[in-house]
Amino acid sequence: MEYLIGIDIGTSGVKAIIIDNTGRVISSRIESYDIKVIKKGWMEQDPEEWWNGTKKAVSEVIKEGAINKDEIKAISFTGQMHSSVFLDENNSVLRPAILWNDTRTSKQCKEIYDTVGGLDQLLNYVSNSALEGFTAPKILWLRENEKQNYEKLECVLLPKDYIRYKFAGDIGTEMSDAAGTLLYDVKNKKWNKELIKKLNLKDNIFPKVVKSTDVVGKINKEVAKELGLNEETLIVAGGADNACAAIGSGIVENSKAALSIGTSGTIVAYTDKNDIKTKGNLHFFNHACNSSWYIMTVMLSAGMCFKWLKKNILKTDKSYDELTNMASEALPGSNGVIFVPYLFGERSPHPDPNAKSMFYGLSSNTTDKDLIRSVLEGVSLGFKDCLVSIENSVDIEEIRITGGGANSQLWTSIMADVLNREISLINIQEGPAFGAAIIAGVGSGVFKNFKSILDKSVKVIKTVKPNKENAKLYEKYYKIYTLLYDNLKECSNLLS
Ligand SMILES: Nc1ncnc2c1ncn2[C@@H]1O[C@H](COP(=O)(O)OP(=O)(O)O)[C@@H](O)[C@H]1O
Ligand SMILES: O=C(CO)[C@@H](O)[C@H](O)COP(=O)(O)O
């Protein structure tokens, strides 16, 4: 038997999983860590914590899997996108990593637009708009605020590439993570030297870019010894977490999309075309398979809204299942209440840090059941807003739902009704780590290609059809939902 390890450097922890050469998950382990909130909007993590977490998670997952370590053929990596690891000439970390959800760089985003001459020009360069979370504004921030660190800066890496460096000693990245830096020419697959020059950034700090499935070396002898792994274990480049989550859901051909109700909410749609026009309200990144691309929307708070309602408003110890049972007793439409989910501002389809969340339509008859249902409906309306934008660029025939929210029958049926689309549930809920293990398998030759192994291992286990009557009601709610953002934009700006 041959085995493969996938490692996901997530925001709340590192997850390691082992799969076998049929794509079956053998064991899975998470080691959690925290985000350091330095001050409002400043989010950091120490790469050393990722590394310690990784070593623990890998040791444990091997123990739990009870497999012969010599049969582990390859390891690959995935992780949070955009977060910056700054290295000096000795490849030592210069300062804690600035994370993808850090918003300290609004000034630098404006500088990027001013320097290149606006959104259209930036889209011509890198196919994406300047968002605070992306890597480029973080490098500009370092240059302006920590001059000494910028002077010592020799390389910028993404989180999973730093961990890959610790495993193999190889400094580099691959296309799907390079795409999220805002300095990579996504269409033509190379660093955009012209943009790097315009921004007057050092041009030697961007590492070589390989394909996700490239074998970048063998495991470093000391790490092999420490983790008890065979020195012949291959290290495969890997991919960004959203690309790997898409692979792990079988999104490897046109007209398929994955919709994830996690802490944030994403829709990722596959495309083999490099000329997608997005107006900057969608992300357009390189995929980690088939030399393709994907279009993505990101809602900053999706499942987060439900967690917030449970903890901050209802202040209850009831489980999510108990709460959704309560919500199922409220009628569709939540007794006239519409929830707008912009708890952290929003990214898609409105890149607007000032966007505000609200319950609209509260009355003296509103119950806690209505509030819970309205949160599930409001988050689903946010997904509808994203889907409408994506479908202006590509056609989607199949939507596969994943993430914690997909555990709820009620939420998935509300989603089907709001989107007025059939939704598929799949057997794999391992997320990006599973995609990384698949990449390890394709890269090391254990699997022939992505499609053949994913057709075998990722199966649709259920389809949820929309209820026509509810869909009609939610069509009306969607109209009101979009009007709420458009009409209250000025008030939201005034309140910010
Ligand atoms: N049984 C459930 N019913 C409804 N929602 C759930 C359930 N379990 C988890 N969730 C939702 O999923 C969210 C967590 O999603 P998950 O994909 O596990 O998180 P992350 O994106 O942080 O990895 C929770 O905040 C909650 O909103
Ligand atoms: O910013 C993005 C994508 O553009 C996020 O999806 C990050 O990639 C973080 O992912 P998690 O660790 O929260 O899953």
From TrEMBL:
GO terms for biological process: D-xylose metabolic process; xylulose catabolic process. Substrate binds at residues 81-82. InterPro entries: ATPase_NBD, Carb_kinase_FGGY, Carb_kinase_FGGY_CS, FGGY_C, FGGY_Carb_Kinase, FGGY_N, Xylulokinase. It comes from Anaerosalibacter massiliensis. Residues 257-442 form the Carbohydrate kinase FGGY C-terminal domain. The active site is at residue 241. Belongs to the FGGY kinase family. Residues 3-248 form the Carbohydrate kinase FGGY N-terminal domain. Its EC number is 2.7.1.17. Catalyzes the phosphorylation of D-xylulose to D-xylulose 5-phosphate. Signal peptide: none annotated. It catalyses: D-xylulose + ATP = D-xylulose 5-phosphate + ADP + H(+). The lineage of its organism: Bacteria, Bacillati, Bacillota, Tissierellia, Tissierellales. SUPFAM superfamilies: Actin-like ATPase domain. It is an enzyme of class 2 (transferase). Keywords: ATP-binding, Carbohydrate metabolism, Kinase, Nucleotide-binding, Transferase, Xylose metabolism. GO terms for molecular function: ATP binding; D-xylulokinase activity. This is Xylulose kinase. The record marks 8 as: Important for activity. PANTHER family: SUGAR KINASE, XYLULOSE KINASE.
